[in-house]
Design a protein that fits this description.
five-stranded antiparallel beta sheet, mainly beta, hypothetical protein yedk fold
């Protein structure tokens, strides 16, 4: 799964990695991204006008929900079933997105307790999680944009913490993933477990355990 992650990629790297023309003025590092937070989301603009980055709430609310604050608001969706799951099916077909990240956190259970681990790309380049988005606006009220991160089976680097990991797309797959015209069989094939050497793990202190801690000290290595 992916329940917390790190977003601190510099603006120029985001623009280059995701082919963006600009970024929101209020975009800033997030050292302890947690469910319900506003997160950066990349998608295709309407009418073929390139890609854009906006902020959405992490925790998926389908457009047909009766109440955006009641019922499940999943932060993750299984890649194997998202195309047929009633909650995600429409978005899987037409509202796919990329969720930029610098790394993600999982917790390793040891005899001494749970130790947070930060998984970051070995190459130091930004990560792109495969995501889905939707907008809730049934009565013409202020629209609520939400998103979820797709997951796949863990690779050899992450499996010691959890049996699932976020679906991470290489840059060469961004266009096909975002294009609503890509055949669904090809879309599904993009959701695969990352190579073991894509990520490295670093044990951290317990600062990141609390969502109230949101500064760079979340990255303090374990003693």
């Amino acid at each position: 799964m992916c329940g917390r992650y790190l977003f601190q990629t510099p603006a120029e790297e985001l623009i280059g990695e995701f082919d963006l023309a600009s970024l929101p003025d209020d975009l800033s590092p997030q050292y302890n991204v947690a469910p319900s937070h506003l997160v950066a989301v990349v998608g295709n603009k309407p009418h073929g006008l390139g890609r854009g980055l906006v902020r959405m709430r992490w925790g998926f609310v389908p457009r047909w929900a009766t109440d955006p604050n009641a019922g499940p608001r999943p932060i993750n969706a299984k890649s194997e079933t998202a195309a047929t799951n009633p909650a995600f099916r429409d978005s899987f077909h037409t509202r796919r997105c990329l969720i930029p990240a610098t790394g993600f956190y999982e917790w390793h259970t040891t005899p001494a307790g749970k130790v947070p681990q930060l998984f970051r790309p070995t190459a130091g380049t930004p990560l792109a999680f495969a995501g889905l988005w939707d907008v809730w606006n049934p009565n013409g009220e202020s629209p609520l944009f939400t998103c979820t991160i797709l997951t796949v089976p863990a690779n050899g680097t992450t499996a010691f913490c959890h049996h699932r990991m976020p679906a991470i797309l290489p840059r060469g797959d961004y266009a096909a993933w975002l294009d609503a015209k890509t055949p669904l069989a090809e879309v599904q094939a993009l959701l695969r477990t990352s190579p073991d050497d894509l990520l490295t793990a670093t044990a951290l202190s317990g600062t990141v355990n609390s969502v109230r801690n949101a500064g760079p000290d979340c990255l303090t290595p374990a003693a």
